[in-house]
Amino acid sequence: MSDNQVKHNGLLIALGFLLGAINVLFLYTRVFTPQAYGTVSFVLASSTLIFPLISLGVQQTIIRFFEENEDSSRKGLMANSLQVLALVSLLVFVLVYAFESEFRNALEAENSLSRSALFSIAAVGVSMAFFELFFSWAKVHYRSTGGIFLKEVFPRALITLVLSTHYWLTPLSLEGFIQIVVAVYVIRAFLMGVRSYRLLPFHFFYGLHLQKRWVYLRYGALVVIGSGLSMAFLEIDKVMLHSLRNASDVALYTVIVFIATTVAIPLRALQPVFNAKAAKFLAHGHRHQLNEVVQKAVKISLVLGAFIATLLLVTEPVMLFFLPIAYHKAFAIFSIVLLLKMIDSAFSPVGIVFQYTRYYKWYLLISGSFLLSMVFLNLWLIPTYGIYGAALASFIAVTLFSAVKVGLAYIVLEIQVLSRAHFLPGILVVFLMALEFIPDAAINSFFYWVGFVLSVLLLMRYKVFAKSFLSL
């Protein structure tokens, strides 16, 4: 069952990325100016950053404690999560209304931020929180494919349609488009709620023992910190570019990051199944099965991620052909962003496992220290080097943090993340990293093709197209 889910999830995520590529490469860059597109990117990035604070970790709390409860207690767990999320969402809108001018002053640099954009950030963040809560209810029932469709395909398909109307219906205004984006995220959350309710009905008002409520809230507080750190690792560079440079730089950086994030398709396909299984194995003390599923997840991410990365590198001229000339200079950071996304996605399963252990708070302290180092690196490098400085800061922090995660998993959890199965894809990653030190573009292009051929050989070596490869 899990291998079919991973396969279907992967196809849907690939379709979502295809639609996203159409939006980024053909529509956003032509419908809006770089300044306006940077504002849209800033709104979505800011919503993603505040989403963990709004959710208070309720989505991970569902996954963490679902296996430890009977059916009646599971309904109480969901009711508690809904109540907490509703209360926090109401508080967010009250704070935005009360301190609107202060928030706008804090977020503005060389850019103007409208009142509606500020409320849109809050609305999208709240919608994301409700969506992820309902999605987690589907994950623990191993029914993630519908949620993946709503998460990856649904919003991008609607946004593609809306952006297309600029040409055949009426020109889009920036304010109007942002309001449409808010509506799309709200509808997505509602549809996910309906689907989750049909899997196992839940209620908003349901009794729950006070002690359990406290346990859930305490764990949720840790998840807030962890989710905030994870989102910050993904989005802090865009937000700091907006503050330290301008919205145009954010637009350039967003295009490259979106394309590079394609290497994370394998991880995002297996993550719903992996999360539920990791929590289950830890709850029941099945360490051997946990070690196997972690190694398998890392192998899938490395092998398929390396193939996608080399494919993107050799097709860079095609992307340049379709992109407006104003965005061409952003490809100076393409390879380094691609590498950092590949390394981050390959070792993300290790961090996921720590979420469900008693060592989570110590893991968060280490995560926070690396995020702080990324902030300082961005403050140092962005003013001088712009988008290249943001990419380099992220690459240094993410690579070092991934190495530390592997070491921590072995020392603390006795999980041997790396095995002989990871040696060949690891060599390919090191090979691609070494190309960063070759200044000649022609030589680099030749070795990109060498890397692509090697990645295809890896697909054959690990029998990627066999059904067992994607089975967790």
Which characteristics define this entry?
single chain, 472 residues, mainly alpha, 18 helices, 81% helix, globular
Return the domain count.
1
N/C terminus separation: 9 Å
Could you say which structural class the secondary elements and strand pairing correspond to? mainly alpha
Quaternary structure type: single chain
As a whole number of angstroms, the C-alpha radius of gyration is 22 Å
Low-confidence stretches: none
Percentage of residues in strands: under 5%
Number of helices: 18
Number of strands: 0
Largest sheet: none
Portion of residues in helices? over 70%
Order of helices and strands: HHHHHHHHHHHHHHHHHH
The global form is globular
Q: Summarize model confidence as the mean pLDDT.
A: 79
Q: Could you explain the architecture of this structure?
A:
This protein has 472 residues and is mostly helical. It has one domain (2-470). Helices cover 81% and strands 0% of the residues. It contains 18 helices and no strands. It has helices at 2-31, 34-55, 58-66, 71-98, 100-107, 115-139, 145-168, 174-199, 210-244, 247-260, 265-283, 287-314, 316-322, 334-354, 360-385, 387-412, 423-434, 441-461. The longest helix is centred in the middle third of the chain and has 35 residues, at 210-244. It is globular.
Question: What is this structure, in a nutshell?
Answer:
The protein is mostly helical and 472 residues long.
How would you summarize the topology of this molecule?
Blueprint: H1 2-31, H2 34-55, H3 58-66, H4 71-98, H5 100-107, H6 115-139, H7 145-168, H8 174-199, H9 210-244, H10 247-260, H11 265-283, H12 287-314, H13 316-322, H14 334-354, H15 360-385, H16 387-412, H17 423-434, H18 441-461
